[in-house]
Amino acid sequence: MMIMAAAASNESPNKSTEDKTSARRQNEVNKKLKYISLAILVIQNASLILSIRYVRTLPGDHFYTTSAVVMAEVLKVLTCVVIILIEKRGNVKSFVSLLYDSLVVQYLDTLKLAVPSLIYTLQNNLQYVAISNLPAATFQVTYQLKILTTALFSVLMLRKSLSKIQWISLVLLFAGVAIVQVEQEGGKQKEAVTSVNQNYFKGLVSVIISCLSSGFAGVYFEKILKGSSASVWIRNIQLGIFGTLLGLLGMLWNDGAAIAEKGFLFGYTPMVWGVIFNQAFGGLLVAVVVKYADNILKGFATSFSIIVSTITSVYLFGFHVDLIFTLGAGLVIGAVYMYSLPKPNPNTSTSSTSTSSSSHSKGGDSELDAFLPNPKAPGKKKGI
């Protein structure tokens, strides 16, 4: 008996040491995943905007942006179909049964996504218009108004409450964007001389409407799908089906005659295909990695992407950065970070506040999904 007791006592410290080692390794893995997530979010966000700006300002024939939006939706649906088929281990019967149940049997649930899909399709088309007419850095800064519109719609539609710091950050965000616009307005005439077929006002209106539509769609998406158990892949298929149909209608309405004459793939180059793949797969990739990124990390990603876009624009497009633009962009970057901070809970003790803040930062928050072009799981917004 004494020998067994001694053996048990020896096993206990060993087990405790193993648990600590395992926990330490898991923390190291989680930390690496967070940094990888940060890098992916920054690269996807900045590269999409910069690449669209690049292909839309190249000399020669340009592709039809409406066809690019449709192609991205088709690729997104096909990718999600393949992923679900892999999850079902190639069981076609189970795969077809799942799609039939999700899309047909639960048709009311599917129809709910028609509205956000319409808005997202409009948003994607407006993004092309905005980036084609605005400097990439200016678009990136102005596009952060999505945070403001999403926050306001969340307060109005979901009755969410914002902390004082978040309200202050929204004021700073608006002030920063306004300063950038004043600076760009002053240099607009000079830019108009060197730019071909670019309309600053048209680009500005497009990005503002895009921000409004994105904010409403994200909150509406969260409101109608709370409590739903469908996977992110099913949701993207549902959105993609509507997005493809609505995108085709928009394409026929706007560019139907020209596409009938020159073809659907007119103007498609390897670089254009790169933009489409980035738009289609980038959002799905973000939807996967974003679960490893809390709100603070996503705030950092947005801030870094603004910096990356600005620096790259200087070398790639000859963008001029002056003191006023730096001030405005700095306010926006600071506001994004402030808004991403966990909201304190004064009604709980210090320990419970810490736990609440931690869970809040790890949970989905539609306001911070402003820089994600695609939808995510229920309660979160998609990036398209």
Write the element-wise H/E pattern from the N-terminal end onward: HHHHHHHHHHHHHH
Largest sheet: none
Helix % is over 70%
Mean residue pLDDT: 78
**Number of distinct beta strands:** 0
Distance between the termini: 66 Å
Percentage beta strand: under 5%
Low-confidence stretches: 189-194, 348-384
Question: How big is the Rg?
Answer: 23 Å
Please identify the structural class as seen in this structure: mainly alpha
The total of helices stands at 14
Shape: globular
Tell me what you see in this structure:
The chain is mostly helical and 384 residues long. The protein is built from 14 helices and no strands. 42% of the residues are buried. The model is unreliable at 189-194 and 348-384 (pLDDT under 50).
Sum this structure up briefly.
The protein is mainly α. The chain is built from 14 helices and no strands. The longest helix is centred in the N-terminal third of the chain and has 56 residues, at 2-57.
What is the topology?
Elements: H1 2-57, H2 65-87, H3 92-105, H4 107-111, H5 114-133, H6 136-142, H7 145-157, H8 164-194, H9 200-225, H10 232-262, H11 270-289, H12 295-317, H13 323-340, H14 350-362
Helix pairs in contact: 1-11, 1-12, 2-10, 2-11, 5-9, 5-10, 6-12, 7-9, 8-13, 12-13
Key attributes of the depicted protein:
384 residues, mainly alpha, 14 helices, 78% helix
